[in-house]
Amino acid sequence: MALNWWQEQLITTIVCGTGALLGYLVYDRLLDPRNPSTRIPGPKLAALTAWYATYYDCFHKGGGQYPFKIKQLHDKYGPIIRIAPHEVHVSDPEFLEKIYATRNRNSIVGDGLMVDGSVGSAKDFATHKMRRDALNPFFCHKAVMELEPLLRSKASQLRGVLESYVVPNSVLNVSDLFFAYSNDILRTFSFGSEENLLANLDEAHKQREDLASLLRGSNIANHFGSLVRLFSGLVVGFKGPQALPPAMRDIIAFRSQSRKTIEAILADPSDNYKCATRSVFYELRDSPILPPHEKSVDRLQDEATLLIMAGTESPAKTLTITAFYLAYMPEVMHRLREELYEARTHAPGQKLSLSTLLNLSYMQAVIMEANRLSLGVTIRMQRTAPSETLIYTASYGPKKGTAYVIPANTPMSTLTWCTHTNETLFPDPLRFDPERWLGSGQEVSYRKRCMHSFGKGNRRCLGMSLANAEMSLALAMLTEYDLKLFETDESDVSFHYDFQVAHPPHGSKGVRVVVSKLAN
Ligand code: HEM
């Protein structure tokens, strides 16, 4: 069929327009000698289009695969690579301090979780600092030590659950157990209410699955946030919330429950419902640091959602990994018991205090090793230096010795997957080996400096001290029982998908154990 004049003009315009745009992009992103990023190694396609990252984050093998690809790219191109047109990844422990100095966060932990008003989602330095300053007093080491009674009562309850499973034919899902434990602590501390998910492990299982399902969608939400919001808004608008997938409905219910609690706290000036424990949101309500608009229900609801999700998922994951290896490697359990036994001989008849547990070198080494293998946050924790140009000199690889310019405002990151599995730092990196953290030699202190499961710099984890305290108390309880793995293997605690945090293969039921009394 012959084309008419208008059709010919239209096709010519489209072809020429596309060609010109492509030509411009190729020149701008790959060839322009004035753009220092063009000299940074990496696949041309990644430098040309952000769809390369989107493909590995969202679609390849079900998504969450970019960390694995990035590691392969480093093997080929060396320590610095361009992983998107305006993004750089560096796999060199020596450069960590530079990237994670006091910086701005670019794409952020909170983005995929849709908690725009939270501390984790604050993009600019000043807003982040204000929110962080308001929260810091509750999560610093001293404040956490004062929480010992709350933590201890939850740890005793955890022991009660372990004890209740010392019956024939019963299998305990410790992934659910630790989810409930961390969640109870965070919610009680946040809202001042008495939370008790530990009493209902079926509900804990459901909530754990809901959170996993939300996290599985987080890469899509990161890349297509506006579309996801628009689409779910339309679904809810036209068909009502019941048309959403069950996990999403549960998350919405969880958010609205937090909202109601926050509304009640804001409307409770006489503190009628405040329990004895210090509670974060009562104190944020009265915080002199936050201006009134930072105390809105919407903002505090986002803050609560991030605190509870981050404060539940990560400690629960580390504890689950620990429990797995205590059952899988009896020699680790044995050594831990010996250390606790020895500590008790110094304080006969007394419970070991939290500060004693935090000073037990082997116990802390076990926790460090579980944190290393948990990888903390697996997404790219990107930082930007808004007005500083950084220079990186390749320390290995085909271009060793070459200096590269990272222009100001370029998002840059180092994945924990790259550092924590660096063979030079951690020989045989996938092996669980607490010994790596013992001693005070230079090698061990360098390792400690490089480890970044809690992040680094001004945006590092807020809950680090709390996490270490609750993990130490739970671990002491675990050693009082024998644990035998039930239909669980190493894949259940391994890294297969990057959905903000490490996810095991689909279908993993979590770590399940048979619990028995400790044989004397
Ligand atoms: C083993 C336990 C934990 C691990 C491995 C962990 C890991 C991390 C990491 C890596 C970051 C930094 C993300 C970034 O740099 O972009 C982070 C941030 C954060 N974490 Fe944790 N976390 C843990 C426990 C907790 C707990 C118990 C809480 C409860 C309060 C918490 C609350 C937060 C918050 C609010 C942020 C954002 C901080 C900010 O942007 O200033 N985390 N966490």
Short structural summary:
The chain has helices spanning 5-31, 44-48, 51-59, 66-77, 96-99, 125-139, 141-146, 148-164, 174-191, 201-216, 218-223, 225-239, 246-266, 280-285, 297-328, 330-345, 354-358, 361-374, 416-420, 442-450, 464-478, and strands at 80-84, 87-90, 104-105, 172-173, 383-384, 390-393, 403-406, 412-413, 481-485, 497-499, 501-503, 512-517. By secondary structure, it is mostly helical.
Can you put this structure into words, describing what you see?
The chain has 520 residues and is mainly α. The chain has two domains: 1-32; 35-517, Cytochrome P450 (Cytochrome p450). The protein has 21 helices and twelve strands. The chain has helices at residues 5-31, 44-48, 51-59, 66-77, 96-99, 125-139, 141-146, 148-164, 174-191, 201-216, 218-223, 225-239, 246-266, 280-285, 297-328, 330-345, 354-358, 361-374, 416-420, 442-450, 464-478, and strands at residues 80-84, 87-90, 104-105, 172-173, 383-384, 390-393, 403-406, 412-413, 481-485, 497-499, 501-503, 512-517. It has a three-stranded mixed β-sheet. A three-stranded antiparallel β-sheet has the order 4-12-9. It has a two-stranded antiparallel sheet with strand order 3-5. β1 (80-84) and β2 form a beta hairpin. α8 (148-164) packs antiparallel against α9 (174-191), α15 crosses α16 (330-345) and α15 runs parallel beside α21. It is globular and about 90 Å long. The model has no long low-confidence stretch (mean pLDDT 91). The structure holds protoporphyrin IX containing FE.
